[in-house]
């Protein structure tokens, strides 16, 4: 039986993207990854490409959650388990997976209708160490 291994990423809609960038880097200490995409930015906290995606919109709310399974076999098994349980989902396109920086992605909704994604193969950047947005130790 395939199981989720972790919460891999979260997409958040924000009214004031500039203020959120400042808060995320200067207060929380996340690393800003600017991919040059209008109205969107990525935030790192480890070797993954990102853990948070900020989308400029009017919601100020969680837009989706991305749950990881261990690999391709577990990804296929998860599809079988969801089908057997009568849970509707769709396999995301290559473009949707690339946008999230993962190999494959499933799109579905939780019981309350919140967008949920299940994926495997996150983009891990071992050659790019995490650099916090602010000093993490010592005096400022």
- Counted beta strands: 8
| Helix vs. strand class | alpha+beta
Question: What is the CATH architecture annotation?
Answer: Roll
Shape: globular
Compute the gyration radius: what is it? Answer: 16 Å
Largest sheet features? 8 strands, mixed
Fraction of residues in H or I helices: 10-25%
Question: What key phrases describe this protein's structure?
Answer:
31% strand; 2,3-Dihydroxybiphenyl 1,2-Dioxygenase, domain 1; alpha+beta; single chain; eight-stranded mixed beta sheet; 140 residues
Q: What would your notes on this structure say?
A:
The protein is an alpha+beta fold. The protein has a single domain, classed as 2,3-Dihydroxybiphenyl 1,2-Dioxygenase, domain 1. Helices cover 23% and strands 31% of the residues. It contains three helices and eight strands. The chain has helices at 17-28, 72-84, 94-100; strands at residues 6-14, 31-33, 40-44, 52-56, 61-68, 90-91, 104-109, 115-120. The protein has an eight-stranded mixed sheet with strand order 2-3-4-1-5-8-7-6, sandwiched between helices. A hairpin with a 7-residue loop joins strand 3 and strand 4. The longest helix has 13 residues, at 72-84. The radius of gyration is 16 Å and the shape is globular. The mean pLDDT is 93.
